[in-house]
Amino acid sequence: VPPEDPGALADGIQYVLDHQAAFPPAVLRAHALRNFSLESVGRRMARIYDEALSQRTAVADSTGSAVVGGTLRAEGQSPNPELLRILCCPLCKGRLVIRPEELHCPHCVKDYPIVMGIPDMRVYEDPLIPLEDDYRKGEKFEKEAAELDFGDCVRYYWSLPTYPDTPPDLRERFIRNVLTQEERYGASWLEMVRGGKTLLEVGCGTAALLKMVRHKFEFAVGCDVAFRWLLIARKRLQEAGQPANLVCCCADYLPFPDHYFSSVGNVSLLEHVDDARAVAGELGRVTRRGGNLF
């Protein structure tokens, strides 16, 4: 039964129910394991992404993107040295050794790659997409972003395939949400966020809040578990003439020192995490004493 034909699927289910003698449980179980096991679904998902997105190559293309030592490099996109200096290991919170294409934790003996100019400090991958597909989708986006403005970048991103598929009306809703965030929330954000020396937005997404309040701080950082969204965030900030200090990381394993930021905030974050208590603990840990947590 083709998955895009729910009517045929309903008919097929009804046929099985009407002819149960012809479909003993052992046969149904074998069919289910063969077609719907985690391994089977994973193979199909990988195949969909492989067919939809171009494979990475080790040859530099017209955008200057290349695979270097297993990570992707984008020419002209390098993280701010000041940002690299404040990062710590998300696991042990120890100091890191800064290398050209990665950050190394001597204590954990673990390397964190710098991918397309963004440090990837994740302890675990985005639950919504496998790591390699997150990179691949990000690379495909980055190839087009140079020729597009921010609005068209958002529209292009949602033209890329998703798994499971996103219906057209929902895609349009997501696009409108991103493109109207500043207009809808900007005034309340400006009122809520008092200025200071340093700002961290956790779960920054496309960095709407970061852009709106950046002028109130000397140094501002945005972080998110979704690598591909940080590339869109970078486009928004660069288009506004602002520095893009962005880090890919997990909200419950923040790679920042204790009490570093004078203001730490998030918008629509806690409902998307598995352990809100752990995330709240990390938000408090990196907030300066007497600072602003919103």
| Helical segment count | 11
Strand content: 15-25%
Mean pLDDT: 85
Helix-strand sequence: HHHEEHEEEEHHHHEHEHEEHE
Strand order of the largest sheet: 9-8-7-10-11
Distance between the termini: 50 Å
Structural classification: alpha/beta
Radius of gyration: 22 Å
The parts where pLDDT drops under 50 for at least 5 residues are: 54-70
Helix content: 40-55%
Q: How many extended strands?
A: 11
Shape: globular
Largest sheet: 5 strands, parallel
Please give the structural blueprint.
Elements: H1 6-18, H2 25-36, H3 38-52, E1 65-68, E2 71-74, H4 81-86, E3 97-98, E4 102-105, E5 110-115, E6 118-119, H5 131-145, H6 150-157, H7 168-179, H8 181-192, E7 196-202, H9 208-213, E8 217-224, H10 227-239, E9 246-248, E10 261-265, H11 276-286, E11 287-293
Parallel strand pairs: 7-8, 7-10, 8-9, 10-11
Antiparallel strand pairs: 1-2, 3-4, 4-5, 5-6
